[in-house]
Structures are given as structure tokens and as C-alpha cells.
Specification:
By secondary structure, the protein is an alpha+beta fold. The chain has one domain. Helices cover 13% and strands 29% of the residues. The protein has one helix and eight strands. It has a four-stranded antiparallel beta sheet with strand order 3-2-1-4, with no helix packed on it. A two-stranded antiparallel sheet has the order 5-6. The longest helix has 12 residues.
Amino acid sequence: MAAEGDHIQFMTNGFAINGALRTSLPHMPQSGELVVPEKHWFVWPDVAINMYGNVGEGPISATMLQLAIISESELIGKPFKRWFWRRQLFP
């Protein structure tokens, strides 16, 4: 996860946030870079993809990258103190 102003680089051997190298996640681009815009977050989605037909990795990576940039307006509310029987770690 990265916050506004963070620099993200995608490489064939992983990705880096502000120079800290990490292991690539499923369907991440193999090249390119971006700076997280103001009042946005970068959170790589964890979804299952069932593909039928001939879809290349490029369009999938591009779509996932669009989903990974989240604006503050899309984050609504505050976390619950308890979720069912589990106490949450948030204040």
C-alpha cells in the first residue's frame, strides 16, 4: 500500500515503493512507474480472475492498475470496534 506522493516502479523482478523493492503481486505490470496522486491511495486488488477466451496479460494489468488507485472519497466511514466476535486493531 502506498499513500499520496509515493513513487511506485514496476519491474520484471518485483515492484518498488519509494525505492524499497517488494515481490510482485498477481497481474502487476512488468514495467512502468507512477506517483500516487494527492488524496489517493495505492492498494493492489486481491481478486480471482477466471478467464475465458484469449485475453492477454497487458489488458488485465492495465485494468488492475486502474482499480488500485483509490481516492479518499471512495473510503467511507470508520472501522467498527468489533466485527462479529473479533475485536479490531484500529483505534
